[in-house]
Amino acid sequence: MRLYRYRGGWCGTQADARDQAGKQFEQIEVPTDKDGLIHFLNIEHDKVRTLEDRIADLKQPAPLVSIEEAEAGALGVEGFVPADLMRLTDIEEFIQLADHRQLATVIENAVLRLRELQKECDRARCEADRVLA
Questions:
Q1: 48-76 pLDDT, tens per residue?
Q2: pTM for this structure?
Q3: How far apart, in whole angstroms, are the C-alpha atoms of residue 96 and residue 103?
Q4: What residues does 5 pair with on adjacent strands?
Q5: Chain centroid to CA 44: how far?
Q6: Beta strands in the chain (DSSP E)
Q7: What is the distance between the alpha carbons of residues 31 and 89, in angstroms, rounded to a whole number?
Q8: Which residue, among 19, 28, 64, 23, has the nearest Cα to 47 in the 3D structure?
């Protein structure tokens, strides 16, 4: 049996998948015999469980770390994950599965960070203008 998986769920036809996800879906062959179907469902369940566990880990409040500890690479602090060890796919998965409140928090923090970066850029531009003048 063919099913079509997209980021938000499953469809029974390509037409339905296109309506739901545009071109962002994949065709999956699902076994129809009892043993094969049970095996398939267990694998899919494990994938969902793994994502749920990862999201639960992301929801856990990280311990407070001082700026000095963070800059020094405080790997000994439980729950501290340096940015270079974080995978972009972890963040993308969290965003895709976040509820409204969580997503609003992520967006708010992203906007605040973008404003900080813009201010830094503006300061650097002003400094460069002063040096060139």
A1: 777 667 677 666 655 555 555 555 554 44
A2: 0.39
A3: 9
A4: 10, 26
A5: 19
A6: 2-6, 9-11, 25-29
A7: 29
A8: 28
